[in-house]
Design a protein that fits this description.
UDP-N-acetylmuramoyl-L-alanine:D-glutamate ligase; 19 strands; alpha/beta; Protein-Tyrosine Phosphatase, Chain A
Length: 440
Amino acid sequence: MRVSELTYALEATACREAMITGLSVDNRTVEPGDCFVALKGTRVDATRFIPDALERGAAVAIGGPGSPDDERVCVVEEPLAALGVFGRLVRSRYVGPTVGITGSAGKTTVKEMLRTLVGTGRRAVFPERSYNNFEGVPRTLALLSEDTELCVIELGTNAPGEIAALSAMAMPTLGVLTSIGPAHLEGLGSIEGVLKEKLALARALPQGATLIINADDPWLASADYPGGLDVLRVGLVAADGVLAPPSEREARTLPVGARVVSHALGTTVLERNLWIAICVARRLGLDDDAIAGAVADVRPGSLRGEVRMLGEATLVLDCYNANPLSLGEALDDLGRCTGRRAAVIGEMLELGNATFAAHREMGARLAGVGVDRALFVGASATAFADGFGDAGGDRAVLDLYADVAAARGPFAELVRAGGTVLLKGSRGIALERLLEGGHV
């Protein structure tokens, strides 16, 4: 695009005319022809890097007040908002299908599974990482080109209105709702608030568009959806109006059209996410044989349910994030394992006023599973232990620790005992650090 097209969309003062051929928010990666957006972070204001970006060949730099006086610099009030305008401008030139995925849990996993199923069958754009916010979404949209055949966008939120704003930028033509749970309650207030926020994706879809929902989720199963949408209800539990695989089937298998294919995923949550991804791929018109051939290649993302062997122990590393919905399902899966069972549970963050009740509930849930040993790491240890004990759990098997460092020794002992060991906690706890330092 031309610089003048961007400055017109920004309602900003025009600067030197040039052709924009790329986007960068890091001056160190600027290539000739890029638009450099100088974002203001919590520690660094990138405005000071504008001269370096221009020297590296940026066609235009967008910065906030105090930016250098240069004909190649466009000054705006808020560079992050300008980045969103850039993303929407690129998206408006693209006419292919755009899949928008959101949910309290599972959105990144479904996105990555869909990436594997699509494979090389279509020229597709996917977020490079968990680019699901006001910086990440436009950076993904900037990857669109004339030969793109499919765009997949992940939409996240911490506060009311964010999904609507991101959807207005991404303009999805097919929506996916993975789950509703008590995540980000500090900003969204309640599960009802979470549901309302996530449904903004459905409201953003054009008339006649497909909305694929996880029908195993009670909140999504009973929600009211906008009229004029083709709502496809999918899940692992058979019910009226739900597209589900046969209940009587071999373990770790799912149908793809007329074929039944095996997968390498060991948890119910991951299998459900794969089923959702398969349904999305088929709705996009991908060939059943190609989808079936790719299912065996689907693997969980790092720390998102990956299984590792460590001595005699089978570690289920599901500690990229956690909320009561995902933790509850992970505990259910642990309860179905045979042999010795152990759990390392990390604090669930961003639950606001629901923090105490949620950890107490999860403690009771763990007691119902029946474990040989459990560790809890985080500030809500007392609430978790109270729930565990009141539900009949043996307090002698549950140990409480303030942080990961304090839990390293006990974790090593737990692993040496063997069996299945679940690690589940919020990103801020980073339970994977228990594996560092040669303690196990």
